[in-house]
Amino acid sequence: MNEKLTFGSFLSEKRKDRGVLLKDLAAELGVSSVYLCDVEKGRKAAPKSEHLEIIVKTLFLSEDERNSMYDLAAEAQASQKGISPDLPDYIMEKDIVRAALRTAKQYDIEDEEWLEFIEKIKSSNKQQ
């Protein structure tokens, strides 16, 4: 039976893969082992974004793993309405980002157009 990957199962798997004890990760985060166990078991929502960054550093997560973790955290944090916790601050700090997102929403931008946009950003940063 395939279980759906959750923030808690992802965290537990990566922590164990890296050989990090639950109590040690809890100490790094400044939380109790009981709380972290509850997060891993899905009884508590994912922690705040500042804790997520500590997890990234402590578990030496790759960029892909980091992005997956943030997406899973968003699913676990009902109050974030499905937005990955690494994005709200960036969106709120930049007027142009909010304008771009609203324009994309207004014109119902397709995935292909988003992919072209992403590639344009990546290629322009390579030229710098």
Order of helices and strands: HHHHHHHH
Principal-axis shape equals elongated
E-strand count: 0
Structure annotation, total helices: 8
Main sheet, how many strands, which sense, barrel?
Answer: none
Low-confidence stretches: none
Question: Which bin fits the share of residues in helices?
Answer: 55-70%
Q: Report how far the terminal alpha carbons are from each other.
A: 48 Å
Arithmetic mean of pLDDT = 88
Strand content: under 5%
Explain how this protein is built.
- The chain is mainly alpha-helical and 128 residues long.
- It contains eight helices and no strands.
- Helix 2 crosses helix 3.
- The longest helix has 16 residues, at 111-126.
- The termini are far apart.
- The mean pLDDT is 88.
Layout: helices, strands, pairs:
Elements: H1 7-17, H2 22-29, H3 33-40, H4 49-58, H5 63-76, H6 88-93, H7 95-106, H8 111-126
Structural descriptors:
128 residues; mainly alpha; 8 helices; elongated
Give a brief outline of the structure.
Helix content is about 65%, strand content about 0%.
